[in-house]
Structure formats: C-alpha cells, structure tokens
C-alpha cells in the first residue's frame, strides 16, 4: 500500500500544480474489474486509504469511483473522506460490459446515500457507457437514455465515447446535451488539441490519459501535459467569458 499511496500523492500534486479543478480517485489498476457485488472489503479499505492520503496533500474537491460501477461502495468511501461526488458508469438501465451484464445502480445507491446522510455527495453518471455493448438498450436512442439517467436523479451527466483515452465524438456530446437539463461532461479523450471543439458543446471534462506520460493512462502524471491541457482550457474559458454566447 505504501507504494500505491506514494504514487497517488505524486499524481495528485502534479494535477493540482497544473491547475485542475478537482480530482477523481479510482482503483483503475484493479483490472480485470469485478462486478459490484463481488468487490471485497479489502478494495473499499484500500481505496479509502488512498483517497484520504490524497486529501492530505492537495486542497481540491475530490470524487470517488470504485470500479466496476460500485456506487454504494463509492458513496461509503466518499462519506468517510468527505469527497464531494462519485462517478457511476452505469446509473440507469443495463449494459453488457467487459465484466458481464452490469445493471443500473441508482435505486439502491440513492437509498444508501440517504441512509448514510450523504445528500451533499453529488452523482456523476455516464449516459452512453464505454467499454462494451449497448445491445440491451439498442432500441432506445441517446436522448431517451439521457432522460433515464436524469429521471434517476443523477446530478451531472457524462458522455464517454468508446473506450478510455479515445476522444468522445462531438455528435454524442451534442445529442446528450440537447436532451439534458443538467450539466454534461466529456468523459474521455479530451486533449489540448481537441479541447476547444469539445468544450464548445459540453460544460466540462474528465481528463486522464492525455495528462499522463506518453498519453498512456497507466503511466504517471506528466506535469508538462497537465499544464498544456489546462493552459488550453484556461484560454477557452477566458474567450468564453469575454465573448459569451448571445
């Protein structure tokens, strides 16, 4: 655990120094991921320890994502370390993922959040989930799936693209944004080169791979890449402030 915590702290500090707005702490290294009901207490304990260590070295809001789609576990960790949000990649409906069939977590997770008095923990939920097949909901379009996630009380919606690191398609973000009444984030593949295109149609982004060494998600954070991405984001923000949409 000591080496994992050291790496998490180093990455968190590199992100913070580069100007990011918030961090998500995930057990991304637990590949192959287990289904939610198969995740053991050791995973929850270790992820809690790492998240707490991160809060001690950076003064940024943090979120939790316990993979795969363990929303209840994520909420428990968030409550323990005072995290501000969780991410659930399958909040409503069902999906054929790498781990098998993953069902929406909303019904149980919202009741659990209430039971632990975690009402201030916001839910970031994916709409069109990456890494698998949408065969179960193939007869329903993105607008319907967007409305489902909103109806199940997610606070923020995420457009993910096809897989980690691959750019989310602008048309997918636009389709979700058009059907949504809440904020929409780009969930994958934002880089300094495509930031202007994607942020023009979204409210923000979750960025991982393009801020890592060589753009590879499992590598350490590259401070220069973080500064490059955030420099472009800051430029876009300033432009939008000075020239708001009519």
Describe this structure in words.
The chain is of the alpha/beta class and 246 residues long. The protein is built from eight helices and ten strands. It has helices spanning 2-17, 41-55, 71-81, 106-115, 142-151, 170-179, 195-199, 223-242, and strands spanning 23-26, 62-65, 85-88, 94-97, 100-103, 122-128, 132-133, 156-159, 183-186, 204-205. The strands form two sheets. It has a seven-stranded parallel sheet. Helix 3 (71-81) links the parallel strand 2 (62-65) and strand 3 (85-88). The longest helix is centred in the C-terminal third of the chain and has 20 residues, at 223-242. The mean pLDDT is 92.
* Cross-sheet strand order for the largest sheet: 1-2-3-6-8-9-10
For the CA atoms, what is the radius of gyration? Answer: 17 Å
CATH class equals: Alpha Beta
CATH architecture: Alpha-Beta Barrel
Residue share in helices?
25-40%
Mean pLDDT: 92
Q: N-to-C terminal Cα separation, in Å? A: 52 Å
């Amino acid at each position: 655990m000591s080496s994992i915590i050291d790496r998490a702290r180093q990455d968190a500090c590199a992100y913070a120094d580069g100007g990011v707005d918030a961090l998500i702490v995930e057990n991304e290294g637990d590949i192959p991921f287990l289904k939610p009901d198969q995740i053991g207490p050791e995973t929850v304990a270790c992820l809690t320890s790492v998240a707490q260590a991160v809060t001690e070295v950076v003064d940024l809001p943090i979120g939790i994502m316990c993979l795969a789609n363990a929303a209840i576990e994520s909420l428990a960790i968030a409550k323990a370390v005072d995290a501000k949000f969780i991410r659930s990649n399958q909040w409503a409906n069902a999906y054929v993922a790498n781990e098998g069939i993953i069902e929406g977590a909303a019904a149980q997770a919202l009741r659990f959040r209430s039971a632990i008095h975690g009402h201030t923990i916001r839910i970031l939920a994916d709409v069109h989930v990456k890494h698998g097949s949408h065969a179960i909901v193939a007869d329903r379009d993105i607008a319907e799936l967007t409305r489902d996630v909103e109806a199940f009380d997610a606070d923020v919606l995420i457009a993910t693209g096809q897989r980690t690191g691959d750019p989310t398609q602008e048309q997918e973000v636009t389709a979700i944004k058009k059907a949504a009444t809440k904020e929409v984030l780009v969930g994958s593949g934002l880089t300094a080169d495509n930031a202007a295109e994607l942020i023009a149609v979204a409210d923000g982004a979750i960025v991982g791979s393009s801020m890592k060494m060589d753009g590879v998600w499992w590598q350490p954070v590259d401070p220069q890449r973080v500064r490059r991405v955030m420099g472009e984001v800051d430029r876009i923000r300033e432009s939008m402030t000075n020239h708001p949409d009519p």
